[in-house]
């Protein structure tokens, strides 16, 4: 009986995938599923070599043979192939920390639906701790240090990434939860729905997973298609939460389309007007009332400036 299925989408990152697979113990208890998203020939050849060198490891390789490209489609293929009682998700350029299996194994017989673990991240070029994990480690920390109605709401509905969470497979299957097969933000609705349906959960300070950041991993601009995909997912999430969670929970989330209005300005005035209209048609709050608080607004601007400055060396020019 397989207790744990680890689902890994892959695209043109065979070297880092090899590193990731080396961090997963060779146990019959673990089913590792790799789904290739139509990589180029070089990486496909490397995948063949990886497969040949796996020996008796319980690793399965599949191709994304659907008409949809992206990590969402790959993860859905993985879900259909998964046979474990529990699920973990990993990205092919990240890795698990030593001893992670012992930490997750501890919860295999528990009655929890999701176990949230604290993540970490690293800058590959310098070896220094990155900031990619901070948003999610803060959600963990808040729930542990000062648990409240609000910290639980944010944990349920703002922990967007699928990694560093041990998820009961039945929670996903019984509620027919899938990843959006879109080019961006494929994991938001998956995480929102698992957060909504989970009955019991645990938050752990144990760290099991490391997210990586490479130089040149960020682009200076976001294409219209990617922006639109993210906007559509936000609208879907907003409406799902508005229709399903309590009014107190929805109010605590303080959702608005202000961030999307701001980002739309990079695409021109006409785009901004279209986005504003789309948000209004969907009855979505466009501006956060806090914007009229000068202290809040100043702190927000400074935070964005510092983040952009820190990310500068990771930026590559898009073509």
From TrEMBL:
Taxonomy of origin reads: Bacteria, Bacillati, Bacillota, Bacilli, Bacillales
The record lists the organism as: Virgibacillus profundi
Matching entries from Pfam families are given as: Glycos_transf_2
One GO MF term attached to the UniProt entry: hexosyltransferase activity
As for family, the record states: Belongs to the glycosyltransferase 2 family.
Which stretches make up the Glycosyltransferase 2-like domain?
A: 5-135
Q: Which domain of life is it from?
A: Bacteria
InterPro entries on file = Glyco_trans_2-like, Nucleotide-diphossugar_trans
The name of this protein is Glycosyltransferase 2-like domain-containing protein
């Amino acid at each position: 009986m397989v207790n744990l299925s680890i689902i890994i989408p892959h695209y043109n990152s065979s070297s880092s995938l090899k590193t990731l697979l080396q961090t997963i113990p060779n146990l019959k208890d673990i089913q590792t599923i790799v789904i290739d998203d139509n990589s180029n020939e070089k990486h496909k050849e490397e995948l063949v070599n990886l497969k040949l060198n796996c020996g008796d490891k319980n690793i399965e390789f599949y191709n994304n043979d659907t008409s949809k490209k992206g990590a969402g489609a790959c993860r859905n293929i993985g879900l259909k192939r998964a046979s474990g009682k529990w699920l973990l998700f990993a990205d092919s350029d990240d890795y698990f920390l030593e001893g992670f299996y012992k930490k997750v194994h501890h919860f295999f017989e528990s009655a929890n639906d999701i176990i949230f673990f604290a993540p970490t991240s690293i800058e590959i070029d310098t070896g220094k701790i990155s900031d990619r994990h901070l948003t999610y480690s803060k959600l963990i920390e808040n729930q542990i240090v000062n648990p409240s109605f609000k910290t639980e709401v944010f944990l349920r509905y703002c922990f967007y990434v699928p990694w560093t969470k041990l998820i009961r497979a039945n929670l996903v299957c019984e509620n027919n939860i899938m990843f959006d097969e879109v080019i961006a933000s494929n994991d938001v609705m998956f995480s929102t729905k698992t957060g909504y349906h989970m009955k019991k959960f645990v938050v752990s300070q144990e760290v099991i997973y490391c997210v990586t950041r490479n130089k040149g991993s960020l682009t200076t601009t976001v294409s219209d298609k990617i922006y639109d995909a993210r906007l559509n997912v936000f609208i879907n999430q907003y409406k799902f939460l508005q229709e399903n969670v309590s009014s107190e929970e929805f109010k605590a989330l303080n959702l608005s389309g202000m961030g999307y209005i701001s980002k739309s300005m990079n695409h021109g005035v006409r785009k901004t007007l279209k986005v504003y209209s789309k948000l209004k048609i969907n009855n979505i709050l466009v501006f956060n009332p806090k914007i009229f608080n000068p202290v809040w607004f100043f702190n927000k601007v400074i935070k964005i400036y510092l983040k952009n400055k820190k990310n500068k060396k990771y930026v590559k020019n898009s073509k």
